[in-house]
User: Fold these one by one.
Assistant:
Number 1:
Amino acid sequence: MACVTGSVSLSFSELFHGLLELLNGKPSTLAATLLELRLSRAMLGFVTGATLALAGVLMQALLRNPLADPYVLGISGGASVGALTVMLLIGMSWLVDLAAFGGAIAVAALLFLLAYRDLRGSGSSDGSAPLLLLTGVIVQAGCGAVITLMLSIAPDSRLRGMVFWMIGDLSNADARVFPWVIWIVVLLFALRMARAINVAAMHADNAMTLGINIGKLRQALFFCAALLTASAVSSAGSIGFVGLIIPHACRFAWGADHRLLIPAASLAGGSFLVLADTLARTVVAPQQLPVGVITAMIGVPLFLLQLHQLRKQVR
């Protein structure tokens, strides 16, 4: 669907012939060129959505908070500061992704130093999760102030691009291997940790007696979530709601067992973002909307519906 629809639609026969040209390495027709562009964008959208959803699952497990998402600790704020700094002062597009990734990793390292004792906490009653969350909120507020300052002094010629990047945009998508490597490695590692996450979620106070080192588990969850967030934001900007609503939807549909929740949320998150990006390209074609706007417009009513269903179950 993502490869067929757009401002210029492709029939299935054109799609087939374009695919053959791409496999032969000679995209000479319009169909093959469009397919190449849309396929690259769809692949980047899938890996970004899968990365954000997986980061959301890990962040909710780390903070033991159902409202946690990949951006709650301010890591995305660091990425935004790095990317917008390059866009404002240098203007070289090829440096934006690198600066965003570096900014996210720098903020993650700062958070780890500030919250090292909290991440070493060994139980659910020690208050470490709220302290870590509060630290992240303060760091995010600081990054937000810097972002507001840069937007206020940015020239008009660069302001639009900076705002689009912050909302979340896949229009400059190209073939990238690095996000796929990060997602696959962290996904496999998270699946290995799934049993320990389940035990920690149900019996956090007694997890040590069950053979689970809660301190090391929290540190592993933090590093994995930070790396996933840095990868997603540096690839496509700050796309909201994917890391919040997709884990909840999968948990509502298939339960809270992380052995199933982790792969299900990743696949659902990738599919959701591809669908949202397809809508962003086609709703007002040939003009394109930032995909972050579409995810928010879908995410808000969907999340409210999930809350309504949860209230009915509680009653």
Number 2:
Amino acid sequence: MTRTLLAALCVVSTLTAWGAADESTLIANGEYIARAGDCVACHTVKGGKPFAGGLPLETPIGMIYSTNITPDVNTGIGSYTFEDFDNAVRRGIRKDGSTLYPAMPFPSYARTSDDDMRALYAYFKAGVPAVDQPNKDVDIPWPLSMRWPLASWRWMFASRSTGPSPAGVEGQLVNRGKYLVEGLGHCGTCHTPRAITLQEKALTNAEGAGFLSGGAPIEGWIAKDLRGSPVSGLGRWNEQDIVQFLKTGRNNQTAVFGGMSEVVTHSLQHLSDADLTAIARYLKTLPATGGGETVAVGDAGNSEEKLHNLQIDSLGARVYADNCMACHRSDGAGYNQTFPGLAKNSVLNDPAADSVVRIILIGHTVPATKAAVTEYTMPAFGWRLSNEDVAAVTTFIRQSWGNSGGTVTAQEVGRLRKTISEAQMRGAGMSVHDGAVDEQFSKK
């Protein structure tokens, strides 16, 4: 009798240990998925508690604020069942049955697998500290604030299609990248142009070549073309260039800036090398929009020769020589992994120059990552360069060393300058480092 009881206790103890181990693994998987989905980016205000919401999100119809997705019962998702959670993330349906604003990328998250959703739910229910922080009401004027028309928008534009899986080992890697880019990574949310009704013009490459062909300005930054154009896209980058950029925020061609800095800092640098390679492999399958493969030529080496010999014959060249050449060099090549090259830089060849102008005005810090621990800061020049100076130097670098970007006017610079605070113009707050968020994940 005693032996039977002891044996039964051993079995129960073993099963309990297995169950705890399984739950721990599920939560760890969920944390990784949350990283891949970059949930922290929208659901954490700078300096606030991770996932407690409150981040202002500017939309064409007004300001909305991200919600508290910690497991707090009163203000977060502590009372959500898995079905409630799944409906919100993959279908855009709130617990009360109304539709979420499409600032939540549920059309992309719809492609998340059932297994990944269950892991994500386990993480947010048991792996994230509860925070009692009430949600903020939207700041959208009536009648645009009414939610019931959003149900029609969701019915028309949100999709659950995942597409066929390519066969073979190579196909599996590409398909994994496709899953991460089109689904969890929701890259199209920023990098795909939108229609007047605010939906992405294509949610997948199968829906059109507009997918990942570059988006509209977001908080003053242009989300670049991620397709195969050698002029404005990733055509001149090889697979390793892409992996290195995603992992460190820099490569021999360029360095991260704007909102993408936070994506690298809080999400992409934490993905496995296998997943980063899968993303790169998939992106390299996307042809250039329109099929153009001609590399920009600009003025070839003419600017380099003149700058090297200090033959300064334009305002743009003078501003460049006085302020930029020490770091970016007379040949525009910069210094690998430190000061990004400007020669044949796809950002400079983008039809819109907003990102370039903004960096000149307010500067930027390339963030430190686990694989590249040094931050590099470009100072702000907006406080001492006039609109004419900024327009001239932007035009100069967009049309030198093989670049073929358009001309920028002082009026365009003035328009962007009005959106920037005096503190930003003097270089304040250039770093994207958020200690609270990093501390949360470093404990795992």
Number 3:
Amino acid sequence: MIDELDLALVDALRVDPRAPWSRLAAPLGVDPATLSRRWARLATGGDAWVTSYPSTDRLGYGLTALIEVECRADRVTAVAERLSGDPQAATIEIVTGGADLRLTVGAVDPAMLTRYVLDRVAIVPGVLRTRTSLVERTVREGSRWREGALDPVQREAIALPAAAASQGRAPTRSPGHRIVADRSLLAALGEDGRMPYAELSERTGLPASTVRRRLAELRDSGRLVLRCDASPRLTGHPIGTMLWLEVPADRLEPVSAWFASVPQVRMCAVTLGAANLAVYVMVRHVAELRRLEEQLGRRFPEARVRERQLTLRTVKLVGRLLDAEGRACGYVPLDPWAPWPG
């Protein structure tokens, strides 16, 4: 049975996904052993998990694209399942609006993205047409979203030790392409972002001290993102909606900054495509979305919402395969360098 401690535990790991149970015990008011047992139950049942992925914004190369796919009515689920095994497709959602699917795709360069869209997505039986938008930059990253189960004092108690530890390390200047050499580390952390250092050492063949140092460098630089997610059973079935906006170029900065400050916004990105701003909003009731748009209209009347895409079902979330109830049931390592399945 899900209770308030489960919600608090997940939100605590959203603050610091690799925080030791001993550090979370005092802020959450329970002993470390209880937290360990709780997390094991949630993770085993597919109700919560920690994953990781590289940040193209911080790497300095590579790109992310949002691909909208229109399908034959009787092939929507089949197309989503067919593409869910692709290591390039991080997230796949069944949505309302002008498209049936929305894919978040990673690619090493524009040429590889073009090949993926034309030679992979477009030829899947049932696909009618696609529309691709490039992510120019991410203003608010999905890992920063919080459920609101913790109060400010609890969040600060969890976040401060991690921040203090990073301040004691010298900044690294390793080039972005070094992330290629960390593919085994990325794959292991994607499968389980809380994987112990000893197991990471076994998976990668690197000494545990090297793994610890490299992981710290990647996190401090922002090139590696750790993220805790949970099933709708835990989060209470929030309504996820992507807003595609047209904003005058000279107003993109204040509009995107405002969205990034709104608690209901999970992701905000400046895009190049049919719209120039994509905002993913998580609300409990449709009325909340309407109120948010009313606030937008009062603050920035020049911004226009050109489309709303309600997420009906998430098939894959940052590499995690989800069942019809939204529980994790598998994992496909994210790897833009890998060939896609035939």
Number 4:
Amino acid sequence: MTKITGNPARTHRVLLLAQLSNSVGDGAFYVTSALYFSLVVGLSAAQIGAGLALAWGIGSIAGVPLGGLADRRGPRGTSVVLALATAGAVASFLFIRSFPLFLLAAAVYATAQSGLAASRQALLAGLVEPAARVGMLAKIQATLNAGLAVGAALGGLALHAGTRDAYFAVFALDALGFLGCALLLRLLPALAGSGAASTGGARLEVLRDRPYALLTVLNAVLLLRLPLLSLALPLWITQRTAAPGWTVSALFVLNTGAVMLFQVRAARSVTGLPEAVRAVGRSGLVMLASCAVFAVTAAGFGPWPTAAVLVLGAVLQVVAEMRHSAGSWQIGLGLAPAGRVGQYQGFYGSGVPVARTLGPLLVTTLLIGGGAAGWLVLGGIFLVTGLLTGPAVRWAERSRAAAGPVAGPGAAPAQGDAVGAR
């Protein structure tokens, strides 16, 4: 991929505005979509769950070839097209009234979203200098959280109104957000496609990169933290503790607020692969501590002491999240070969839909079924996975050294990654 220079400050602003544009709509979409599909479209809970699981499964697979398309045709144009496709998929939800059409629209939505994430990572890698990429990704993550928080508040207004028109307004807002994202991305400098993936074998190169595949699996395991905040903790708090119900909302606000305020600071120390390995390893240790604290809340304390312990566990969790995010970005981009960023990021980013698809079943079974012991088992999984990341990165570095001196576009300077979705 050929880099075309431009005004770095302007490029950074456009990237952040593009993220803000679609994340506000997404925040509103996330808090209202389940009820919309149930009350307006008329789907059962089983249909919604199965349909979304299948759709995100399709999307996670499609992310690799769509990322490869960004490598071949140029990431800016591909990102614009996929943002428009996402806008169209969201808008189509306004007109569907049957499960088959819902499944089709959801599959298009998940596929476009997965491809857009990969192509935007390739676009960022081509426009932002290597030393600034992790810091830029941290700013994007903070912007994402800010947009989601605003959108969630707007979605809350729609839920309060409870009318068909209010739900329609939310979906229209999300569609317009992705349309705005496409228009903003169009303002960025064009990047020429590498043309390196012109053969069928090259398109599947990432699938033959065993060290990178292992790192993708390890990252997916660490991303099991995603359903903790959105699903497992709410169930745990209401079913297994004496904490007041508002604690669920308080922990969500704490998490999103901390990421907005401190993600950039947490990423500053991650300037290369060695620092990324340490960040991911320490995130596993902190997640173990967080799980142990959450396990303590099953002891039967009163409402306020339980709420205080839950807050402590949530603080440890968000610290681990920010360290894992920074390290993961550096690893995912730093080990992607030149000309294959989109393809590799499409594969690496598949950990998010996999964690969101399989994570809820695994985490709820382990925690709600296993109680405090389940929390300790989950914490142990996070610790071991974080520690295994170091040997996996060193294996990837050795394999690249043996293949020849091909530096990935995300590589850090000699002195010494996809943005995590929520």
